[in-house]
Amino acid sequence: MVREKGDREKEPLLQREIRDDFHGSTTASLSSADYDTYIKPYIQTETAVYWYRWYILALFTCIAMMSNIGWNTWGPIETSARATYGWSKSTISLLANWGAFTFVIAVFPSSYILDRYGLRVSTLIAITCLCFGTGVRCITPDPKYATPLIHCGQIMIGFAGPVAQAAATALSSVWFPSNQRTTATAVASLASYCGTALSFLTGPSVVEDFGDYPISEAHSKYKALVDKISKDIMHYLYVQAGVCGVLFILVVFTFPKKPPKPPSATATLERMNFKEGLKKLFFNPQFQLIAFAYGLTTGVYSAWCSDLAINLKSFNINDKTAGFLGFWAVIAGSISGISLSLMADKLGALKLLIILLFVVATGGFAVFSLICVNIVPTSMALFYLTSVVGGLCLNGSIPLFFELAVESSYPVAEGINTGAMTFSNNIYCLIFLSLPLIPNLGTAWMNWFLVGSCVVCVPTMLMFKERYRRLELDMVEGNTTNKNESTNSLPSPTNYNT
């Protein structure tokens, strides 16, 4: 059917520009067929935002935090756990690595479930895995039986990771208006990192330290201390399982599939199916640039943090101090991520913010590396300053990356998009963690590898062509400014259907 000239003149100007751009540009991510399928059905939609979106965000944040607290249970209490269960250092490493292994396996199936069945079903599956994983570790303190059960628990906790880390953009899209999406993404995506930081405090606070006693003599000469530590560990595991149980009940009864009315026009538009979405991401050079920059920097940084104690061993910095370095870096990154997201919601300019963060991170980690090779005088204050500045920048870039990736690849579903991003992160993390297997490699390379990853990604982001496709569609009908805050109660039970 041919559109008359008069009809075209009635078409909103911005909507017409977007449609013409999608049809006419050879470099645009959306083809004419994509426009007809995903954009043409765009009509004026009644939207609303609900106060309990903040409750949904808080509940999801708690789940994401518990996911990483469960995953990082054993590293902060390594010495005590080894003395109690008779583990080696490689066992502690394997317990941590289950998270990365299961993430790589489960990320795309989890993205499919999120795309096909929605946020409620995905969150239910994640919290069920958490409940099972944290619960099975509580069955017995007997090392003979506890060890395989703990491995099983860590695997199940790992399967919850993809939803906890990759569903943030889907949640913000379903529940939040466009002028709050980046902030909501920041809170949800950084929650898991805050969980890791908290685990460095909660574990040592609950479980007594075995100290410098010989672990080989733990059950012979120090049995009373080991028994005390065993009880502390069980109490710690009980608390984790109990919190996950409460969260499970809350998800079942208070976590709806979606709000009664969408928060924005694009929240109602059809997304590409899973197969089409993956294909689009694979052949979208702009998304590949973002995925590379995000995966390389954040993947290498997370692996670098996990080996920080080994890295600083030659400076007589113990595990606890190294843990605090990582803790404050994550906390600083979380604060900066939320602050920058608030700024981005007002001003935009995600690409510029990310580049500036990479430049500052490069400087911070370069100074850290120079300290480690004795070019810059050793100073604990400088160790703290440089690691915190670097963590502030790289962790702070995470929500900005997620939102920029979603905008650049729209209408690929948010869960598929973020799942692919986090997959890239875990691949580079595993590569970094595999390099120490090379004999006589030392530790100096770790710092320069991190510096190099930041340097490489600056020109990568300069090549990226910034475009806010989803936001532009929301702006067509003024959805970013014409929102009514609903004071309705929670949705009716029909909205809880799975």
TrEMBL record:
Region Disordered, residue ranges: 479-498
Q: Name one GO cellular component term.
A: membrane
Location within or outside the cell: Membrane
Q: Does the keyword Mitochondrion apply?
A: no
Question: Gene3D superfamilies per the record?
Answer: MFS general substrate transporter like domains
GO molecular function list: transmembrane transporter activity
What InterPro entries does the entry give? Answer: FLVCR1-2_SLC49-like, MFS, MFS_trans_sf
Its membrane topology: Multi-pass membrane protein
Q: Where are the transmembrane segments?
A: 50-71, 91-110, 117-135, 155-176, 233-255, 281-304, 324-343, 352-376, 382-406, 418-438, 444-464
Matching Pfam families, A to Z? MFS_1
Q: Which UniProt keywords apply?
A: Membrane, Transmembrane, Transmembrane helix
The superkingdom of the source organism is Eukaryota
The UniProt entry lists the main location of this chain as membrane
| Name the UniProt record assigns to this protein | Uncharacterized protein
Organism (species): Clytia hemisphaerica
Traced from the root, the source organism's taxonomic lineage reads:
Eukaryota, Metazoa, Cnidaria, Hydrozoa, Hydroidolina
